[in-house]
Design goal:
- With 155 residues, this protein is α/β, with parallel strands linked by helices.
- Helix content is 41%, strand content 18%.
- It has six helices and five strands.
- Strands 3-2-1-4-5 form a five-stranded parallel β-sheet, with helices on both faces.
- The longest helix has 20 residues.
- The protein starts with 8 loop residues before the first strand and ends in a 13-residue tail after the last strand.
């Protein structure tokens, strides 16, 4: 997914959870330390795409909503100026597969330790566990920030 191979590329998965917000901040700080770029990836899919039945939805509507949500989330979490410095990608597909593909050739893949999954996570397993086991680059799993301040920064 990345096009500029002259700079290290850091890929971060986001889903709106506190853990993904912490992962996003961590990835931006780390990219700054290594002189890299950040690809922020949000994966979406149609309900029922993996065997569960659900009402049909308009795929274009879902993607438009996801892009708007991601843009707003980046501005809220990073601020407008820093949000403009990252590349936002909304990709349809299974979250693990999307992140693994996006991270091909990356310096690092950053994800939160807990997403929004609940029931789906219990059935399918943790996204962070799957990407940690299968990524071809280093994976950083970031815990949510504590109330007292930010989670630890990049080393």
């Amino acid at each position: 997914m990345g096009t500029d191979t002259s700079k290290p590329r850091v890929v971060v998965g986001v889903d709106g959870s506190p853990s993904s917000h912490a992962a996003l901040r961590w990835a931006v700080r780390y990219a700054g330390l290594v002189g890299g770029t950040v690809d922020v990836v949000a994966a979406w899919d149609l309900p029922g795409a993996y065997g569960w039945s659900a009402l049909a939805v308009d795929a274009d509507f879902d993607e438009a909503v996801a892009r708007q949500w991601l843009s707003q989330e980046l501005s809220e979490v990073l601020g407008a100026e820093e949000a403009a410095s990252v590349r936002a990608l909304v990709v349809r597909g299974n979250t693990v597969e999307v992140l693994l593909t996006a991270a091909e050739g990356a310096e690092a893949l950053v994800v939160g330790s807990r997403g929004r999954g609940g029931f789906a996570r219990a059935l399918l397993g943790s996204v962070s566990q799957h990407v940690a086991a299968h990524a071809r680059c280093p994976v950083v799993i970031v815990r949510p920030e504590s109330r007292g301040g930010r989670s630890g920064g990049p080393a």
